[in-house]
Amino acid sequence: MTETGVSAALSLSRDRAPLAVEDLSVVYGGQTALDRVTWSSPASGLLAVVGPNGAGKSTLLKAILGLVPTSGGRVTVFGRPVDAARDKLAYVPQRAAVDWDFPATVLDVVLQGMVRKIGLLAGYGRDHRERAHACLAQVGMADLAGRQIGALSGGQQQRVFLARGLARDAAVLLLDEPLAGVDAVSESVILRVFDALKREGRLVVCVHHDLGTVADRFDDVLVLNRSVIAAGPVATAFVPEVLGRAYGVPLAVT
Amino acid sequence: MTTFLQIDLPALLGALLAALVCALVGNLLVLTRRAMFSDALSHVMLPGVLVAFLLTGSTAAPAVLAGGVVAAFVAAVLVHVLVRYGRVDPSAALGIVFTTLFAAGIVLMEQSGAARTSFDVHHILFGNLETLVWAGASGPGSLVDPQALALLPASIGHMALSLAIVAVVLYVLRTQLAVVAFDPVFAAASGLRVRLLDLALLAATALATVAAFEAVGAILALAMIVCPAATARLLTRRLDAQVRWSLAIAATSVGVGYAVAVLGPPALGFPIALNAAGTIGAVSGVFFIAAAALQRRDGVAIAGRRA
User: What is the CATH number of domain B2-216?
Assistant: First the structure.
């Protein structure tokens, strides 16, 4: 792992970082998806996780969240085990991960972000609904609350998932390819939300595939290819030499 | 009137309770594409119910229910093991487990002599709907007479209790179960106990299936789990509305199916009655076809689409 001098100086001690992984390994059916990944996140801001196909980017998010069995290593969230700190995390999965024919409205899906905050018998209350509407307004979908989710465009589906993540009011958001295949309007809305989250001091971790836009949109980067190739601020860690090692071919970064 | 109370009412009531409890669990199973899971469940009940019967010598509900539920859990574990360690596709694992256990149940039934009691294949497939009789009924007054009501078939009481338990469990867990059904990965990431919730749904399904199994048999139990929920799914795009529609469709299927069985042949000049469990299942299938035809022309749902 290469950590530049600048990022080493700026990085928090591992026990207090929003996300810290140590020696994390994941093996899928004999294939090593992640190999002894050690990394700790910055305190806040926008971070892109990049790397070639099959580099384990989505797997890293899932391993951090405890959604895939790990074969070694440790994950801490603000110094605590992930199960003790789930309320600090919001996961925004790839939108292809669910069946959009499910009988639910846009509001129903956003409310799911608050499923841990309801009483046993109560169901969602007025406060939850108001908060869900506010989250929808943030992603520019205030007037679509009653819309059937099957009738949304791809970009709108992605924004609903983002709104559901916002409803969790988490310090750290983990998003899996939130900008993949979305329309221009959705993209600008999502980036605006990212900036607001950054201003609020939250950490936004995005699996990102478009290398050309990393420098414009993100503050920090984690370059992954089964193990950590480089991590740190975009200016120092997102350089041709690093990417050449990650992708195995020389790449020019504009 | 007395004949209706003694013969038709208990059969209708039994079929209705079985249909409602099955339709209730069916909603989430259909949404999570696990409808055939309930079929597997109803088959693996057989060896469990038999072993319970052979061990206790009783066909009373608690013993039979426990046997069926234990068998369901054993089967669920076996399927999990096959998928996890045997690298078998989940549907193939389901097929392997339930046919094997069902076959073992048939052999056990023939060899143990249980086949000569109420456990014959006919009853397992089609239930005992026609044998539900209310001997205590002597007129409309019996409906409010505690002594007469106490003579209602015991299985009616068991089914009512099962329905109550399943309804309460699903109502209490409704919000969490809906999140798990839509997006289990997000649910787990948010800290919901997904395995435990799945287990609760499995237990509710097992309870519904065993309760229905005794009265209406494996086939009608499966029809009532799948058909009303699948039909309701075509009629509405809201989960709560889907559950209400499925219950209404299940109840209507029972009413229409029973009427067809009892009144149909005499109306055509045949002095017989059809198997009511069979006609109820068939009617629920007809409802599904009607809803599917309606939906194809419409493109979208007919009810609740402007929610």
Answer: 1.10.3470.10
